[in-house]
Amino acid sequence: MRVEPYLFFNGRCDEALDFYKEALGAEVTMLMRMNEGPEPHPPDSGQKIMHATLRIGETSVMLSDGNSATPASFQGFSLSIGVSDEAQAERIFAALGQGGQVQMPLGKTFFSPCFGMVADRFGVGWMIIVAP
């Protein structure tokens, strides 16, 4: 059994894919646009992303534009990235924070030599941690 996050960007999925490729070195392993599926779709949604899968390190994260005109809301959870050293933590934290909001600056804690929390420009929460 495996749990994989599925994030709905409500019209900003292409932008999110580009951002995560740049910020995290993510690799797009699957991408299907609305007009490639068998179901009828609204005329203006053809190039929107029905489904995409990103590989971030050893993890798959699925993304979509979804079918809602309301802004995406990423509340009540964060995605955690475990990294090997402080330099990698600083690089990833800074990249994810571009256009986002720092929730807890990177720093030493009782449970990690380096931990921080940031919401990226889409509002997705990330926790960056160096294992002790």
What would a concise description of this structure say?
This protein is α/β, with parallel strands linked by helices and 132 residues long. It has helices spanning 13-24, 86-97, and strands at residues 6-8, 27-33, 49-56, 59-64, 79-83, 101-107, 114-119, 125-130.
Which terms summarize this structure?
132 residues, alpha/beta, four-stranded mixed β-sheet, 18% helix
Structural description of this entry:
With 132 residues, the protein is an alpha/beta fold. It is built from two helices and eight strands; from the N terminus they run βαββββαβββ. The strands form two sheets. The protein has a four-stranded mixed sheet with strand order 1-4-3-2, with helices on one face. A four-stranded mixed sheet has the order 5-8-7-6, with helices on one face.
As a whole number of angstroms, the C-alpha radius of gyration is: 16 Å
Structural class: alpha/beta
Strand content: 35-45%
Encode the helix/strand succession as letters. EHEEEEHEEE
Shape: elongated
Main sheet: strand order: 1-4-3-2
Poorly predicted ranges: none
Residue-averaged pLDDT, rounded?
Answer: 93
Number of β-strand runs:
8
The biggest beta sheet, please?
Answer: 4 strands, mixed
Oligomer category: single chain
Measure the end-to-end span. 27 Å
- In helices, the fraction of residues equals 10-25%
